[in-house]
Design a protein that fits this description.
Number of helices: 2
Helix content: over 70%
Structural class: mainly alpha
Distance between the termini: 183 Å
Length: 168
């Protein structure tokens, strides 16, 4: 039964020790514990604040990165468009130059063909005239082998010439 009901002297000393420990804790222990808890709370609050600021900075950096990436894409599109326009201009210029060169070569070829054609016609005329003279010479030699035939031809030609002069 002594276990359930403490002796009054023991109760006095336990209460006195409890009060001394409580006063010591109240004077030095609790303020240290409260101070450590407040410091820990301030550290956690500061860490949360810094984490929030870091998230905001990261979001700003991501936005800035996206805007830089978009700007780079726009510049790339502009450069590609300019390159395509330059390529098209160069191709068009080369095609124009090729057309001009082709037209020039065609004109030169036509002129050369015309010149060769005229030369061939002159040569053919010359050969035809020469052959005609040779044939006429042979025919006249055969037909005009006698003096009578020659006189008859001369008379006929004179008659034709005089009749041509009268008609004019």
């Amino acid at each position: 039964m002594d276990l359930l009901i403490p002796d009054s002297g023991l109760l006095f000393w336990m209460t006195l020790v409890f009060l001394i420990v409580f006063v010591i804790l109240w004077k030095w222990g609790f303020p240290a514990i409260v101070k450590m808890v407040n410091e820990r709370k301030a550290y956690i609050d500061d860490s949360l604040k810094k984490a929030h600021e870091a998230n905001e900075k990261l979001a700003n950096i991501q936005k800035e990165g996206e805007s830089i990436l978009q700007e780079a894409r726009e510049k790339q599109a502009t450069i590609l468009k300019e390159a395509a326009e330059t390529r098209d201009a160069i191709v068009e210029k080369a095609q124009d130059k090729a057309r001009e060169e082709g037209a020039r070569l065609l004109v030169e070829a036509r002129n050369q063909i015309e010149t060769e054609k005229q030369n061939a016609i002159r040569e053919i005329r010359s050969q035809v005239a020469e052959l005609s003279v040779q044939i006429a010479e042979k025919i006249l030699k055969e037909k005009l082998s006698s003096d009578a035939q020659q006189m008859e031809l001369v008379d006929r030609l004179l008659d034709e010439v005089s009749s041509d002069n009268k008609k004019e």
